[in-house]
Design brief:
about 35% helix, 5-stranded antiparallel β-sheet, D-amino Acid Aminotransferase, Chain A, domain 1
Length: about 325
C-alpha cells in the first residue's frame, strides 16, 4: 500500500461510503476501490490526491478526481466502446449496485465507476510515440528503451519512427522500473505478453489518431490489463498530452513541451523548498519512511495546484467536446 498523508487520506465521499458500511478493498495513490454486494464488481472512486515520483503529496487538486473519471468514461464509452474493458456502470447508473442509503449522491456519481473485477497482470503496459520522461533517461544512458534500440541523435521530445511498447514493473510503494520484453515474458508469460503488447499498441494508435486532429499529441500513455483493458485510461495521470503548436516550438529547441498534466508540479518537486533546505523529491526513495515523510512535508504552492486542475480541465474539454458534439 502506498503511504498517504493523513490529511488527504479520506474525502467526504470515502467517509460516506465507509460510514454506510461499504468495505474498502484497496487504497491506491489516487483511487480508492470498494467492494460491492456482487462479488464480481468493484466501485472505483477517484480522489483529488496528487502524486509525483511515486510519492503522494500532502495536497489536493480540487476537482481532479471528477476530471479523471469523466475522461475514463469518455474513452471507454466512445472510442473504445468496442474494445473489451472493465466498465460496467457510471454516473447515476452506479446506484443499482450501491446500498440504498448511499444512492442519489451527486458527488459520488461524478467520481466513481462500477467495474468488473479483474485479476490484474503484473506489468504496466506503456506505449511511447515520443521520447521523453524515463524513456529519454534510458536512451541517454544506453541508446535504447526497454532493450529496444533507437536511432542515434534523438532529443527529448523526438517523435519515434513507430510507437514502441515499453513495459515496466508495477510497484505499490516504490518506483516502477522499465523492463525488457524478456523480463516481462518471465513475469506474465509469452501469450499474455503478446496479447497486452498488441492491444496496447492498437489502443494507443486509435487514441493518437483521434486526438491529433484536435491539435493534441498523445506522447505516451500507460495502460493496465486484467483479462480486459482496466484501471484508468488516457488521463492526465497516466498520459502525456501535448499541444501541437507547443510541440513545434519546443521541437525547434530540441526540447519537449509542457503538457496538460502535472508536469509543472513534478518540475517544482525537483527543487522543493522544505524547511530550510531545497529537496529533489525525484531522488528520494518511497520505500523509506523518512523520505516519505520528507516528501509529504512539502507545502505545494497553491498556484501550482490551480495550474494543474486548469490543465486537466482544458485537456478534458479539448478531447471530449468534438466526440460529444458529433454524437
Amino acid at each position: 500500500m502506498p503511504y498517504i498523508p493523513e490529511r488527504v487520506r479520506e474525502s467526504e465521499v470515502t467517509r460516506e461510503l465507509l460510514h454506510a458500511g461499504v468495505r474498502r478493498a484497496h487504497q491506491g495513490k489516487v483511487r480508492d476501490t470498494f467492494e460491492l454486494r456482487s462479488a464480481d464488481h468493484l466501485l472505483v472512486v477517484a480522489s483529488d490526491r496528487i502524486s509525483i515520483f511515486d510519492f503522494v503529496l500532502d495536497a489536493l487538486v480540487e476537482g481532479k478526481g471528477e476530471v479523471l473519471t469523466k475522461l475514463v468514461v469518455f474513452w471507454l464509452t466512445t472510442l473504445f466502446k468496442n474494445v473489451p474493458n472493465h466498465l460496467v456502470a457510471h454516473g447515476k447508473d452506479i446506484d443499482e449496485f450501491l446500498p440504498k442509503h448511499i444512492r442519489n449522491y451527486a458527488e459520488l456519481h461524478q467520481r466513481a465507476i462500477v467495474v468488473q473485477k479483474q485479476e490484474m497482470r503484473k506489468i504496466e503496459a506503456i506505449v511511447r510515440g515520443y521520447l521523453t520522461g524515463s524513456g529519454w533517461k534510458d536512451y541517454q544512458a544506453t541508446g535504447a528503451v526497454c532493450g529496444i534500440e533507437l536511432p542515434a541523435g534523438l532529443h527529448d521530445g523526438s517523435k519515434l519512427p513507430e510507437p514502441i511498447f515499453t513495459p515496466s514493473t508495477k510497484s505499490e510503494d516504490g518506483h516502477d522500473v522499465n523492463i525488457s520484453e524478456a523480463e516481462a515474458i518471465a513475469m506474465i508469460g509469452q501469450t499474455e505478453f503478446k496479447r497486452i503488447q498488441q492491444a496496447s499498441l492498437a489502443d494507443y494508435r486509435m487514441a493518437y489518431e483521434y486526438a491529433l486532429p484536435q491539435g493534441i499529441i498523445i506522447a505516451d500513455t500507460k495502460f493496465e490489463f486484467g483479462a480486459v483493458l482496466a484501471d484508468e485510461v488516457l488521463t492526465p495521470d497516466s498520459s502525456r498530452f501535448w499541444d501541437t503548436t507547443d510541440y513545434a516550438l519546443a521541437k525547434a529547441k530540441k526540447q519537449s513541451p509542457v503538457g496538460y498534466d502535472k508536469q509543472p508540479v513534478r518540475d517544482a518537486g525537483k527543487k522543493a523548498s522544505i524547511g530550510r533546505q531545497i529537496v529533489d523529491i525525484s531522488k528520494l526513495d518511497p520505500k523509506k519512511q523518512a523520505d516519505r515523510e520528507l516528501a509529504a512535508s512539502w507545502v505545494v504552492p497553491e498556484y501550482l495546484l490551480q495550474d494543474c486542475i486548469g490543465r486537466c480541465r482544458k485537456i478534458q474539454h479539448r478531447l471530449t467536446q468534438p466526440a460529444y458534439a458529433a454524437s
